[in-house]
Write a structure and sequence with these properties.
Radius of gyration: 31 Å
Strand content: 15-25%
Largest sheet: 2 strands, antiparallel
Strand order of the largest sheet: 1-2
Oligomer: single chain
Structural class: alpha+beta
Number of strands: 2
Length: 111
């Protein structure tokens, strides 16, 4: 039995490279026209575009979505936390001359 095509078609994936190519062409054609008229004007146009790009990227607001949330005064109730004690559980010889010291972990519900 032949397979039927699904009724719902998948949305087309947009390519960022295609968008970049469009921007290069849209920016390159006017620059080529200015450069054809005058070499000095073409160099000046490249400098102005570069300064504008740097200014725009510096003025853009940075998202706070990756920022660490502010520390609360008290942890939420009901959570279990681990606290290190001054007692040593294990000491391992590491590669070379170092030692790794593992403290005992104490699980607490109230800090």
């Amino acid at each position: 039995m032949a397979r039927r095509k699904p009724d719902v078609e998948e949305p087309e994936q947009r390519s960022t490279a295609a968008g970049g190519c469009v921007l290069v062409v849209l920016g390159g054609l006017p620059l080529a026209a200015v450069w054809a008229v005058s070499d000095v004007a073409g160099v000046l146009a490249v400098w102005v575009a570069g300064v504008a790009a740097v200014w725009w990227s510096a003025r853009r607001c940075v998202s706070d979505s990756s920022a660490t949330p502010p520390q609360g005064r008290e942890p939420p109730s009901g959570d279990v936390y681990a606290r290190e004690t001054t007692r040593v559980r294990e000491v391992r010889k590491g590669p070379g001359e170092g030692l790794t010291i593992f403290p005992e972990i104490e699980h607490v519900t109230d800090l």
